[in-house]
Amino acid sequence: MTEKYLILTRTGFKRIEAELETLTTVRRHEVADHIRDAKAFGAIEENAEYEAAKTEQAFVEGRILELKNILNAARIIDDSKAPTDEVGIGSVVTVKDLETDEEWNYTIVGSVEADPDEDRISNESPIGEALMGHKVGDIVEIKIPAGVARYEIMAIRRQEG
Prior knowledge:
- The protein is an alpha/beta fold.
- It has two domains: 72 residues, Orthogonal Bundle (Helix Hairpins), CATH 1.10.287.180; 77 residues, Chitinase A, domain 3.
- It has a five-stranded mixed beta sheet with strand order 5-4-3-7-6. The chain has a two-stranded parallel ribbon with strand order 1-2.
- β3 and β4 form a beta hairpin.
- The longest helix is centred in the first third of the chain and has 30 residues.
């Protein structure tokens, strides 16, 4: 049986640790206060505030468990050693869309810390997977919902700080 692990950059590991710390030291107490306050509204059976607080508690506890599992299964990739000669996990890649001439910077990360809104894309996503292992100057074709995008890799660097 192969060991299952999750790839995280050092930055991603710290981000998850910080979220876990906030949930266990702040959010748990806030939710407990909400439950206590909601009980003051009367009978629990017909108390919408109490039900909402209990739902919030279940969400917080579920997220705490999820984050602990992620941290326990994490294999940390040192951001300072991210490859710059070819695209790999931890690399910051500048790509140019050959159709629109627009450029983007993507940070390649493991699936757990992917956040497209922050331009952190998973090595398992269609774009991330297509970029992996390529070098500056390579043209990569990526199947996307709208068809095929053609990107040229303009630069590969490490994350700062």
